[in-house]
Structures are given as C-alpha cells and as structure tokens.
Design goal:
This protein is mainly alpha-helical. The protein is built from 7 helices and no strands. It is rod-shaped and about 75 Å long.
Amino acid sequence: MADSPSLLYALYGVASVGAVLGAARAFLALKGTINIDAFAEQIVKLVRYGNEERALKLCAAAPKAQFVRMLRPALIAALDLEEGSPAAKAARAEQAFDVAYASIMEKEKLAPTWSILVMVCGVFPALAALALTGAAFPMPLAAVAALALVSGGWSLQISRQLRLQARPTFGRIAAAMRKS
C-alpha cells in the first residue's frame, strides 16, 4: 500500500464519499424519526375518547416525522366529517392516510438504494485494500469505512422500520376511531 499513494488516496476518497453520504442520510433519517409505537399509543388513547383535535395538536409536536406526516391528513379528514358515524370517520381517515402514505413512500423509494450505496462505499475500500496488500490497511481508512457502513446500515433500518410499521400502526388508530 505504501508503494501506491494514489491508490490509497482513491480508497480514502471512496470511503469519505460514503461517510459523507451516510452522515447526510442518517441526519435526514434521524430528523424524520419518532418512536411510532409510543406515539401511536398516545394517539389511540385520544382518538378512542373522541379527542381527535387533541391528537392533531400532539402531531404538531413532531411535524417533520414521516409517520406524523402520514397521520396528520388522516386526522384532519376525520375532523372534517362533522356529522358521521365513527365508522365513516375511520373510513375517511383511512383514505387520507393511504394518499399520504403513497406520497411519502414515493419520495422515500430511493432511500434504501442510497443506504446500500453508502454501505458499499464503506466496504469496497476496506476489501480492496485488503485484497491488494494482503495485510492490514491503515486505521484511518478503516475508521472512515466503518462510519460509512454503520450510518448506511442505520438509515436502511430506519427506512425499513417505517415501511413495516406505518400501515399496521395506523390500523390500530382507525380501530380506535371506530370504537369512539
């Protein structure tokens, strides 16, 4: 590795790009993350007793969270239906949630791809340095590569969690609306 400093710089460059992209992706993921289960539990309690307005105010506490951006239009749609049964309010809320869910998931469809790209940018330099030298590679390269790998994996997990939890969690909220 010492005989080819340009190769070393190229590997640092790839790992650094991965680390920067990973940090940016992790920041965006963190900004839009809440504990969906705990938040939904509070919303369910409010909705079950007909306090949709208070549930909407609770949504204002985390306006950038992606789940809240799906839930808020659903609560507004339920509130707009003044004269209606709880089942009608829940049906209207489900329609609004589906539209918001589709919109946000459309914007987020590249998030897993970016996360995987970041992880590749972290793993590739480490593997290339190991394959080319057959020995240990410089510790700073390992640190930058590890940062890219960890931040990419973390943002991939957050994106996956949103996809898996959003619909079932809203199902619990809609069920509470029907019981109110």
